[in-house]
Amino acid sequence: xxxxxxxxxxxxxxxxxxxxxxxxxxxxxxxxxxxxxxxxxxxxxxxxxxxxxxxxxxxxxxxxxxxxxxxxxxxxxxxxxxxxxxxxxxxxxxxxxxxxxxxxxxxxxxxxxxxxxxxxxxxxxxxxxxxxxxxxxxxxxxxxxxxxxxxxxxxxxxxxxxxxxxxxxxxxxxxxxxxxxxxxxxxxxxxxxxxxxxxxxxxxxxxxxxxxxxxxxxxxxxxxxxxxxxx
Amino acid sequence: xxxxxxxxxxxxxxxxxxxxxxxxxxxxxxxxxxxxxxxxxxxxxxxxxxxxxxxxxxxxxxxxxxxxxxxxxxxxxxxxxxxxxxxxxxxxxxxxxxxxxxxxxxxxxxxxxxxxxxxxxxxxxxxxxxxxxxxxxxxxxxxxxxxxxxxxxxxxxxxxxxxxxxxxxxxxxxxxxxxxxxxxxxxxxxxxxxxxxxxxxxxxxxxxxxxxxxxxxxxxxxxxxxxxxxxxxxxxxxxxxxxxxxxxxxxxxxxxxxxxxxxxxxxxxxxxxxxxxxxxxxxxxxxxxxxxxxxxxxxxxxxxxxxxxxxxxxxxxxxxxxxxxxxxxxxxxxxxxxxxxxxxxxxxxxxxxxxxxxxxxxxxxxxxxxxxxxxxxxxxxxxxxxx
Lengths: 231, 387
Known about the structure:
heterodimer, A: 6-stranded mixed beta sheet, 4-stranded antiparallel beta sheet, 7 helices, B: 10-stranded mixed beta sheet
């Protein structure tokens, strides 16, 4: 039994004969501190699986446990608290709020945390420093590049010190050079003990993870471990 | 960074939507404030005018005979069976439920006296009350102190030749004429006025009263109710309201007030609908943003609070601006609805301002409840897929 356990997760959309199976019975375990890549072609169910791992999307059947807690047995508010405490999301399209500065964007997860404004700002600046953007804290998202925006999104994901980062195609909108930088950043966070689960369709970026889970038509299609990270 | 910070930042970013919500509530609040202030000012104006009329309740003795007068012309009918009111009974007026509304009670005794060759009507009055009841009196000279003289009406002065400084002998008593009334155009011009006790002694009517004038404070005074109350304590008197002139106007204001409330309700309803539609549009526009909040661990109640905070902030601003706009509009429009110099200025009312702001917040938040709950109920997964 791992830190994260998916037990026969099934996700169907619709009902009856018209039902579409996005994830068709997936089981795996992930240990704390692992860096796992989930790879598959478009429509293979990898993003649906990631949304279930983030507690955003309830499975039709099956269980998903984090540190022994059945996430989908929790109430809506308890699941929100679980996300606040345990999960940091990194989205493909960054999803920074355009009307907030970089520091304010990074502080967003702290808006619902009981902490002084000074401490929140200090945590945000620290997180931005972690991704090399402390000097741009007062800028707005449209004043920085795409790669920098993704780094801000990563800073926002880690500002609350969650044990798990879920990254959905984090390099999808970036050029290859910037993509590599982002992968190195995720690998660095993993080396600090954060469990990273990343969805990608890039074989090259998948090799920054230590383990690769392949999906095809919503089912496990293979698994690779002890991956060699590109030099 | 707090939920309030998020709400304020969003309002700054989506200024057009915020202004639209603000406009909806501002128009509603300013209309209500404007109409209510206008009605209040008009009522105040009419009440001031009503008070200037002096007495507005008249108490005369009950009689079984009908007076043979028409248009001020007396045709010889005299009410022999007239029961005069006893002065001691007037104290009962102070015991009525609306006694606080009684500004002045003016007892008057009437009777004929002979001055030289002329028969003239003498009125014994309480000069302190008389000055309240007849604010239009202008006396050349002075009002006599108790038992120390008379004043004489303009016509009576002309006919009898008596003027200020003269002495008039009545029933063996010499009374100085301390003043002459300037012409009023009323029956007062033909009368000679003496202090009540003096006149009662001269006329042989000690402790008796012929007529009583009552001035009621008219800011919300219920004249018909007061008439009934005085009738109950003075069964020997025939109590009448002399307010027909203003009653019609008060009724008009009453109709205008009802109409104003109707218009206000309609404008507020439209304002609320504007808020509802705008906030629903705003929520739809922010689907992804709400999905991000939920992914970060915001509870449904957090999302609800952000939306309602935004509505509350805009509504509070609309309440303040609406009150000022309504008050300003009334100040400009009031002279068109009132006559003469009595309308004065509309004063700022902190209570109404507070109520306006509070009502705007309640309406703004209430109209945003459905959009806010719609936002809170958004499936975060669906919200993030709406990319």
